[in-house]
Every structure is written in C-alpha cells, then in structure tokens.
C-alpha cells in the first residue's frame, strides 16, 4: 500500500501516513496537530505533553482481531474521575479502521456503526435499552470525561475538546456499545471485550524490569 | 478418582461373590480331616473327632 | 515502517520510579508504572497520592502491633495462570462476628500487560481474585455469574487496618466496606460496597503449597485451619453418582443371586429320622448313615436337623465322610429350646431346627457319621436329619452387599462432615446435632 508522504507545515519534518484515509495526524517532532486537506497539510493546533500512562500498547504495535491483522496508528487519551484510558486507533489489514481501548489493562475492540435515532446526551438514562444489529444493549454507566491529548493518525478531526460524555452499554455477552458525545450528534461504536492474549500483540512498549 | 476405584472394587467384590457361589463356598466353619479309614463304617466309635466332649450350659432365662 | 523516523517522544519510557516520602524522606518505590492511586511509606506509614509527582500526603496511620509482615514480600514475582505478577501492595483487614475479631490479608498483584489481580489469605487458605468484567446478578440468597449459581455465605463489614505498598484505589486505614460472599466451590463471588460504589470480584481457591511454589517462597506455607468458604471438598467425588453406582452393583448382585439360585440343583440326598435312646447308647452313641452320592461340580451340602426338644438340648457331632478319598468334614450342631412364663409374660429361647451349609464338597460317595449327645434329663428323643446337595449360600451375598455399601457410606459421611464444617463458619450454620443435651430442667 502506498504511503502518502508530506512535510510538516510547521517544522518541515517528513510526515508519513500509514493509513490512506487518515484525516488528522500529529507531527512527532514539533507536536503540531495537522489536518489533511485535498491539497496539503494544515496545522490546526498543538498537543501538550501527554501525561505518563501505563498502556503497554504503542504506535506501530501489531496484533490480531478475529482473522484480521492490525497495526496501531494513533490514539486519543481520555481522563475521568477514576483515572484515564486510551482509545488506540488501529488500521486493519483490509484498510478499515477500528478502535482498541485500554482501560487499566482491560481491552476492547470496537467499530464505528451507523444507526438511526440515536438519543441526545440529556435523554440517556442508566437502564435504558437499545437494539442494534439484533443485539440488546442496556445503558450501564454514563461517564463524564475530558480529552487529554492525541497522538498519531486519526480518521477524523479531534483536538482541544474539553468535556466529553461517554455512555457505556452492556449486553448479556462480551459485546458492548458506546455512545460518544464528543460532537453534539451522538456517535455509536459497537464492539466486544477481548483478552490480552487473544490480541496476539507484538512490538509493545517495554517496561523496565519486565 | 474415587469413582474409578469404587467401580474396580465393586467388580472385584461381585467377581469374588460369583466365584464363591460357583465353587460352593459358605460361611460355616468346618474342620477337615484326611485319611479317615474305611473301617469307620463298621466301627463308627473309632472315628477321632476334632471336638472333645461337648459341654453345654443349660441355663434358662 | 519508514526509515529516518525520529524516536517517538510520546510519554516518558515507563520505569519503576524511586521517589522520597515527603514526610520522612524514606525511599518510595513505585512499581505499577502509573496505575497506582495510592502508595504507602513503609517507614512512617503515610498514605501518599501516587498520581501526584510530589506524593501529597493523604493520611497517616499508626499500627497497633508491630509484626504485621506480608507472607509474600512486596516486589516478589510469581506465576499465576501462566503470567508473571509482582506483589505491589498488601493490606490487613478485619471483621467482627459475635464479639470476635477475625483478620485476613490481601495482596495486590500487577503485570504491566495484564493489569491487576489480588490474592487473599485467611488462616492458611488462599484465593486468586480478579475484578469481574461482566456484572453478576444477585437474587434471594444467591447470585449468578457466567452461568454458575453461587450460594450466599456471609455478609460482613470489612475494616482496613494496615496497608503497605501501592493500591489502584484511594485506600485509607479505617475504611469500612460492606462485603458479601457467595460461594460455588472452588470459586467465591464477592461484592464489596465502599462509599456507594459496588465492585464485584471472582476468586478461586488456592492451596498454600501452590502459592509457595509460584512465588518461590522459602519454608512452608501456614497450615490451613478449618474449612474455608470456597475450599474444594477433598472428597472430590459426586456422592450421588457413587450411590447410583452402588444401586447398580446391588442390582447386579441380585441378578447373581437369581442366576445361581437357578443353577443350584437343591437335590435331596438323605432324609432320615433317628431315635436316640440313652439305654441303647450307653456303650457307643455314634453311628453312620447310608451312603449317598453327590454328583456334578463341587458345591455346597446343606444339613438340616430337627428335634422336638422342649426345655432340653441335643447336640449332634456330625462328620461328612467321603467313602473313597477318606476326607472328612467335621462339625457340630446344637438344638435347644426353652420356654416358660414369668412376671413379664411368656418367654422362649432357642430353636428346634438347625440348618448348616457345608462348603466346597467335591462329587463322590459320602455318608454321615453322627454322634449325638443329649441333655441328661432326657431319656430319649427322635431327631430328623435332612441332607440337600448344591444349595445357594446366602451369607456370601450378605458379605458382598456390606462390602459394597461400606465405602459409599464412608465417603458420604466424610463429604457430609466436610460440608458441615464449611457452613458452620457462614451466616447459615447447620443445625446443631448435639445429643444428650437434656437441659430441660
């Protein structure tokens, strides 16, 4: 797959896009947030230093989900009252994009889904039920979180968000759903919890002494 | 584990019981003697029993 | 991966951090790469904010006894479920039941890829615990989790008395949690409510030996005392299944009985009535019967004796003699029967009939040598002798039945007493079966 190459408009460093559909990336040298237009890259913001975090996943880590291999290309960091978590943006080997979340070493993979009549944030209550893809989901937790930073390639523009509401929905199985209210319109993600061993991850971060 | 042992044990018990029935075993305790001469038929008193004289306590209630 | 990419300057490379306690200056080691919320200074027992680069002091506590040392030292690594975990935290908790305080210990384990697990230890019983990802469903007296039903064992208040190392939550000495345990041995499902938040965890019983091997600890693990709530029964057998096997064996035994009963010829070979006369027997009481033939395979011989004794006795010395081989089977049978009438009513003792089954007689020509002895008070008495060839010996079946029954009874009893021991520690103890408690004054 050809990898588009460009130069950072801020510092001139070489920017490589691993994923052809990436909309946004972060320059590794100057930490500028760059958005892809038809013609070139545009700087839209700056990433502050990311907080130290404990996720063993890093950009360029590789793994498997189902029968597809994937590569980690970007991430969004969130924080809430009980800690933080990472949403790693992964590129599957068929060119589609998915999200691998790591919350205190609990892992889950989810995909963006289209659905009609998603509720507004104020209308959602714990215990409410929805049916998507012939699966019943029940709202379990509503989490006010705030965006902490981005890294690498993302499939949409995402920076300088402040408070974001996430609605977690659980099912009877390992399947779960998330309603993401980063934008006024809800975004739906459907996914499932996975075990670390099943992801067959390699090229992970190394921890001193481990 | 115990189940296997018990199954084996049970079959041994049943096998022994069947074999015993087949060979005519019983619970009675019998004393055996050998070489009883044919002359005992003519003179039963000459037979040397294992038992001495029997002394029985004839108590009532 | 393209060439010439600068090294990723993302978050700092994780290292076990060495910092100093703001209160007393002692070295503080952080082993969880940022996952801990609180860390305890081992020297001054200050609980510090692990997420604060300055380690702000959250609480300080004093310990009442000085010899609370974790059995597994902080920093030790061991393999559980195929993954290495490092002990990063330790706490002692207690609960009070009927005025008695019970202590137990919990260890926080960490792996940078797999996250946090816990070990609990009480009286030498260990459990490998992790937080539930799916929520269990609790109902009356029980809970359901991942297709298994758990029975309510105990609800109690757990107090945190002593802490050491790192914790993934805001631990405080003195914090009280409402803990409810549900068991399905070897697993235990626990719900813990602390400050309005409920956390469910699932534990699996482990033996001290496994812990010692896993963490390569010196010496021997502490001896377990009593039976723990989710301790697997060492009588690890399906008791009901064993009883079913026993029933099957009994049916088999009955079939054997029926089969051999059909095979038995039950052939009468001698039926005679003799008259004992004291006068005639003065010189020699013994006599021999006619010769009879026992045919076929080796088998039993039944000798039935009847005498109409009435407050007397008669004793018969029998010998079954093979005329040709000279082999003799020697035995004696007694008939006595007493009866009367006294203040309690009528009574009787003894029998006028006797049956004996002689074992393993080969075929051949036989006769009986009979020597009677009679109660001196009796001048004469008739008696009948019946000999039958090849009868089933039921005593063998009786022994076989008992032999089949005994192990099943023993194992059932052991399983029963083990479970009684287990539940005696719970909120639902079994009823006391004390006998002789005639305290009804």
Word description of this protein:
The complex is a heterotrimer of chains A (210), B (61) and C (441). In chain A, 0% of the residues lie in helices and 50% in strands. By secondary structure, chain A is an all-beta fold. Chain A has no helices and 15 strands. In chain A, a hairpin with a 2-residue loop joins β7 and β8. Chain B has 61 residues and is mainly α. Chain B has one domain (2-46). The longest helix of chain B is centred in the first third of the chain and has 21 residues, at 2-22. The radius of gyration of chain B is 22 Å and the shape is rod-shaped. The termini of chain B are far apart. In chain B, 21% of the residues are buried. Chain C has two domains: 17-215, no CATH class; 265-391, Sandwich (Jelly Rolls).
SSE blueprint:
The complex is a heterotrimer of chains A (210), B (61) and C (441).
Chain A: E1 5-7, E2 14-16, E3 24-26, E4 32-36, E5 41-46, E6 62-65, E7 68-80, E8 83-92, E9 97-103, E10 106-113, E11 129-132, E12 135-152, E13 163-170, E14 175-180, E15 187-194
Antiparallel strand pairs in A: 1-2, 3-4, 4-5, 6-7, 7-8, 7-12, 8-9, 9-10, 10-15, 11-12, 12-13, 13-14, 14-15
Chain B: H1 2-22, E1 31-33
Chain C: E1 17-20, E2 27-30, E3 38-40, E4 46-49, E5 57-60, E6 77-80, E7 83-97, E8 100-111, E9 115-122, E10 125-131, E11 137-139, E12 142-145, E13 148-167, E14 176-184, E15 187-194, E16 197-206, H1 208-215, H2 239-263, E17 267-277, E18 287-288, E19 292-294, E20 299-306, E21 312-322, E22 328-342, E23 345-351, E24 353-361, E25 364-374, E26 380-389, H3 394-424
Antiparallel strand pairs in C: 1-2, 3-4, 3-13, 4-5, 6-7, 7-8, 7-13, 8-9, 9-10, 10-16, 11-12, 12-13, 13-14, 14-15, 15-16, 17-26, 18-25, 19-25, 20-24, 20-26, 21-22, 21-25, 22-23
Helix pairs in contact in C: 2-3
